[in-house]
Protein 1
Amino acid sequence: MSTTICQVMGLLVSALGLAGCIAATGMDMWSTQDLYDNPVTAVFQYQGLWRSCVSQSSGFTECRPYFTILGLPAMFQAVRALMIVGIVLGAFGLLVAIFSLKCLRIGNMEDSAKANMTLTSGVMFIVAGLCAICGVSVFANMLVTNFWMSTANMYQPGMMQTLQTRYTFGAALFVGWVAGGLALVGGIMMCIACRGLVPEETHYKAVSYNASGKNISYKAGTPYESKKVAAYETAKSDDGRRSYPSKYDYV
């Protein structure tokens, strides 16, 4: 019962993490404009993995997709790839995990096969969660580096202060971190549930039982030899003494 609960809970947590990864990948607020020390607040800019948007105080929002692939930074492309790989692995892991449920019977599938499928789905969820966490962390590192570089350029001594647009963490980063953690935890729970599905090996030694009888002999041989053995065994007297057969016993 505990194995089934652990398996189902791992599946639900992993599915929730996969949904969070998909939502984070499609969100536009990966980086938002930092409004600290910014006198212009009528325009708010934010960027995602697929497009950049500008929101005005009047409520009008305009989004422009990235029309180039080679023109984007290499780290930016790596973040895209990590998130897509995490989603694909999570989708395959979810499909395998559904068919590996102990409470779901499909044909004559044995528990050992379900255990292997559960372990496979758990590993897929773990890798998917790591991909999501790594992708979000790489993007966050890019934001921190650009933020402090922009800050250093704004406050250089001996130079006139210039206003530059700085970006900080958006809501999609936090969603991605949480989703990756959920997928990771769900994968670990699936791997733990795998141990409960493995059939236990029996350690009982085989014991041979020999039927003991006074007038029974289980000796393989030709029909003539079997007849000789039967005649020899029935030649015992009632008081336990052996009476040797005569030549007429074999006729």
Note: DSSP finds five helices and five strands in the chain.
Protein 2
Amino acid sequence: MDPPGLVVHGKAEPFSAALGSLVNSPRYSDVRFVVGQEQQEIFAHRCLLACRCNFFQRLLGTESGPGVPSTVVLSTVPTEAFLAVLEFLYTNSVKLHRHSVAVTFGLGPLQEHCVAFIEAHSQEALRTQGFLELSAAALLPLLRSDKLCVDEAELVRAARSWARVGAAVLERPVAEVAAPVVKELRLALLAPVELSALEEQNRQEPLIPVEQIVEAWKCHALRRGDEARGTPCRRRKGTLPREHHRFLDLAFK
């Protein structure tokens, strides 16, 4: 039996730097993206994107030739976020900023880092244009997080702002745009006076299903028992204390 061969590992830094030099470079580029409302031209390399990311593999196809797009328009994607994704795909690392965490293209590790970044900088991130441009699929893991450093009342306001922007862009009702994500709002954490105000606002501008508000009132009425111990009553890291929380018996963990 032949002895095993010697495996030689080169340094990661020069390799990463060499690939990083190709980010948005026309050198050897065989695909061009037109990104954002400003329609910025960004150069990329089909084989690298396709082998690194299933999203781009489906978008670009598995073979080159006639019928395969050489120019791809992504008008709804923020330019800075798209460049951050490219940097991660090319170099396997990226420095995240509050404006560049909006788009993850199904990249599990990058999405996890983006969620963790927003959890740590929740209030700042909620006020960015990038938050308003999130897809419903990207917003869902944020609203499911226990680690958001923001109070539920502010999160409800942010969700309403997000839905308003989506409604204007898609020309659909606010409640219809919000439907996939508002179920993750934990309305039972709001004090009765806040819940009443939300209920009144919801009558004027529907956002949250009436049944969901009824469930929140039920948590207040029960105060104890299994019905008041599910996710809708679980506090987040940034939840401000309210008098009725002591009945929920659910300290943040």
Note: The domain at 12-58+70-95 is CATH 3.30.710.10 (Potassium Channel Kv1.1; Chain A).
Protein 3
Amino acid sequence: MATASSLFLASSPISTAPRNRAGPGSAASCPSSARPSLRLRQRPAPAVAAAVQAEHQPAVAAAPKPPALPFRVGHGFDLHRLEPDLPLIIGGINIPHDRGCEAHSDGDVLLHCVVDAILGALGLPDIGQIFPDSDPRWKGADSSVFMREAVKLMQEAGYELGNLDATLILQKPKISPFKETIRANLCDLLGADPSVVNLKAKTHEKVDSLGENRSIAAHTVVLLMRK
């Protein structure tokens, strides 16, 4: 199991572009007639791993070493409000849409959900405790940073991914044209074979904020196997 120090990230700030709202005529708007184009977000340098201040996560420092179980199961859930003229990032992919997630980081609901599932399986605090939104270093941060740290913790604890099943819940846009690109990037971040990573997408039948295109949510279940 990783020590508390392995959860800390470098004190130098992450270089991320501000998530500015776009004006009516800017490139961020996506007319319905425009052909969707996918853009893989540029990943932060590998050097981004070593020290979030200990005072931000007392629960992490005090976390007991988990028993060496043959397998562990974790569940993750995340939800973000959708607002106009923000980028919609899902699984590290910029999806063309007229709304995006309002969040402290890049608002990637899928990666946040997967991180929480892995941390939960390991018996560790959730993503909000390890990467608090009160820390300005995570403002607009690329969520692949959080994913890589979760995978590192999994490996240091002596586990590998058995399989992962994730479900996106959103009314718009349709995810089917982008699903395989998202899944491929998720596999890359996890270092996993595509055969053990499953991704589904559901609408919310126009019910509540999810069905009214005012929010987006995701559920993830992971099985970790002892190496």
Note: The chain has six helices and eight strands.
